[in-house]
Amino acid sequence: MDLGINGKTALVTASSGGMGKNIAHALAAEGVNVVLFARSADTLRTVADEIEQKYRVRAVGVPGDMRVENDVQRLATVLEGEFGGPDIVVLNTSRPPNPIRATVDESDAARWDEAYRNQLWSAIHVLGRMIPLMQDRGWGRLIAVTSASVKSPMPHHSLSTVFRAGVTAYMKHLANELGSKGITANCVAPALIETPHRTGTAAYTADQATARKKLTPLGRMGTQEELAGVVTFLASMQAGFITGSTIAVEGGMVGSLF
Ligand SMILES: NC(=O)c1ccc[n+]([C@@H]2O[C@H](COP(=O)([O-])OP(=O)(O)OC[C@H]3O[C@@H](n4cnc5c(N)ncnc54)[C@H](OP(=O)(O)O)[C@@H]3O)[C@@H](O)[C@H]2O)c1
């Protein structure tokens, strides 16, 4: 199926590794030029080179931090100067503070502040700079990666749930305000997506990971491609009548009907 986005430009944030990088690959495979944004300049350059060689699209890495004003301003300058602005913005963010804890044990203001700035403020901050570049293009896609915990709170995930619920509300407001400009705003809410183990960052022990697979009717973890594919579909022409929605990618873990 032709997704109708060949030649468009996508910003993918938090994209030097993990889901962000895989989403950038999936969009580039559809002929989308990609702008990558994360803090590690060398890794970004490697990812951009890989994408350019593999898909024959433009891939530009802009090193920076989603929470830092000057960095996000620099990102906007690159997008406007080199592409006239983004058509598609995928808001991926860093993981919440590690290790995860029971809600009653989350009393450390520094952890709440870190979660707020990483999960909620960074998304609002980046979109605040991108929307003015998109408003007059007549077409746009805003897609935030949140968490299935927004729909069915998972134990020990309050730092994620609270602020991603905020992102979900923010995207709904944007959907209402930007629909008349041809811009849709949606969330993709993952859980149980297989993530390459990075030393010191795994939130779960091996036993916990085994137990988590049993939480879904499918009895397995999801792949990075299954997550990136849904994001890419939401970026497509065919998804033009979906806005203000959250698409869950969690193997049926959430037990509700909708
Ligand atoms: N796996 C799942 O099932 C699941 C479920 C629910 C939610 N999620 C969420 O999905 C998101 C992606 O997960 P992941 O496993 O792919 O994460 P990851 O492997 O830890 O990658 C995070 C990315 O964010 C970048 N980053 C971190 N802080 C940043 C900042 N301040 N500014 C710019 N870039 C920043 C990192 O690059 P640099 O270090 O180079 O900046 C890296 O590229 C996370 O928010 C995670 O909580 C995942």
3D structure, described in words:
This is 3-oxoacyl-[acyl-carrier protein] reductase. It comes from Paraburkholderia terricola. Belongs to the short-chain dehydrogenases/reductases (SDR) family. By secondary structure, this protein is an alpha/beta fold. It has one domain: NAD(P)-binding Rossmann-like Domain (Rossmann fold). 42% of the residues lie in helices and 15% in strands. The chain contains seven helices and seven strands; from the N terminus they run E-H-E-H-E-H-E-H-E-H-E-H-H-E. The protein has a seven-stranded parallel beta sheet, with helices on both faces. Helix 1 packs parallel to helix 2, helix 3 packs parallel to helix 4 (109-134) and helix 4 (109-134) packs parallel to helix 5 (158-178). The longest helix has 26 residues, at 109-134. The radius of gyration is 17 Å and the shape is globular. The model has no long low-confidence stretch (mean pLDDT 95). The structure holds NADP nicotinamide-adenine-dinucleotide phosphate.
